[in-house]
Amino acid sequence: xxxxxxxxxxxxxxxxxxxxxxxxxxxxxxxxxxxxxxxxxxxxxxxxxxxxxxxxxxxxxxxxxxxxxxxxxxxxxxxxxxxxxxxxxxxxxxxxxxxxxxxxxxxxxxxxxxxxxxxxxxxxxxxxxxxxxxxxxxxxxxxxxxxxxxxxxxxxxxxxxxxxxxxxxxxxxxxxxxxxxxxxxxxxxxxxxxxxxxxxxxxxxxxxxxxxxxxxxxxxxxxxxxxxxxxxxxxxxxxxxxxxxxxxxxxxxxxxxxxxxxxxxxxxxxxxxxxxxxxxxxxxxxxxxxxxxxxxxxxxxxxxxxxxxxxxxxxxxxxxxxxxxxxxxxxxxxxxxxxxxxxxxxxxxxxxxxxxxxxxxxxxxxxxxxxxxxxxxxxxxxxxxxxxxxxxxxxxxxxxxxxxxxxxxxxxxxxxxxxxxxxxxxxxxxxxxxxxxxxxxxxxxxxxxxxxxxxxxxxxxxxxxxxxxxxxxxxxxxxxxxxxxxxxxxxxxxxxxxxxxxxxxxxxxxxxxxxxxxxxxxxx
Length: 524
Fold this sequence. Notes:
- The chain is built from 20 helices and 14 strands.
- By secondary structure, the protein is of the alpha+beta class.
- The chain has three domains: about 1-160, no CATH class; about 270-340 and about 405-505, L,D-transpeptidase catalytic domain-like, CATH 2.40.440; about 340-400, no CATH class.
- The strands form three sheets. It has an eight-stranded mixed beta barrel.
- Strand 1 (about 290-295) and strand 2 form a beta hairpin.
- Helix 4 runs parallel beside helix 8 (about 150-155), helix 4 packs antiparallel against helix 9 and helix 14 (about 265-285) packs across helix 20.
- It starts with a helix and ends with a helix.
């Protein structure tokens, strides 16, 4: 018994030693401080541990509930310690770091667990976490530790640090997975349209175990490992949906070929993707600025952040291959309600005129005007269309009037840029049902354009009702903004959500390949 106790004490001290803390931080990523806890630059006067003892009802409830849940078992392990130390480093919290060093001399594992939990509660409070229920907070913390997702819990609970810090946190997690050997591939071949439900997977023990291990490695498995069929299938379905959400897949909760392919991408490839996107942020600091409207091309997503709060978010459609959406940094200066569409000559030549040759009524049915070089309407009679088509390569212009067929929809948002691209509504709304949405000629189509118009124009003194009234008139109205809104299009194939989960996106324009190949060769 004496030997066992000594072993437990030695283990506790090793877990909390300066060496272990420095090691936990050192596996993070290049660019972060890998200094030891003894580095004078990181040292602060040790805080007397009595200060973090439970001295009020809130802390007492937090600590007592944690003791109850952990059931006397060791709660804090090396992995969770690594997450905690990494987060303290990210936030430069010297109080937590110095307290962890002081705690390394504590021989009682139970005291270590409860004191650590109280330290974390204080850490949460210092960095923006608010909760009406200490009991619920404690339960969520303990669940995250037990599920090995403390990093995601901390990211979701604390004040955001920006996208670069989120990617650093994600890279640290994936490096830890790699250090533990990565994950094994799912050896299952499915036909193109074949799927395996979560319930069916529970009847194949080897498949179920492989899926559970794979999803636990990437932090998608959040449920119990209880083996009853009902609980197992429910947990597996939830984990599959979470994985599919993070990897830009249809969220079905079922196993299909695309989901298996995404699962079988190695952890080293994911690390390379994270490193490439971190490098993008280092090379271009504007990528880390989310104030204003940001369109992430590979994600097919846009959001408007105002004063640190997301006030609008939308799915988008971006440029197809050959007409790629460019990277732009500008400011929205004009909102056009019920816009006309002046058709670019290339689109008129390659798309509209071939339709006119076969269906002369196409122009009229789609609400187009045809104008000559002096802006005069052209005779649109069927008998005259051969002459129109013959001279179309010269000075003819096509303008689509406001209405249900207008390609720009009900609103567009203009911002100065040399590519002549803008954000706009669309009449092809069925395309938003697709997961991969590269269909436009370079402009960005919005799934929720009127919502963005209301949010932007409220700063100009317009109510939501007044915006809707302008829209209902079906007449073009330009509104020049006094309060211009920053806008940017970015290219990030990995990003981190507000809950701390890392999302990977299809490299729609093939810009990652060479960089990732170089990184993979370096890693061997």
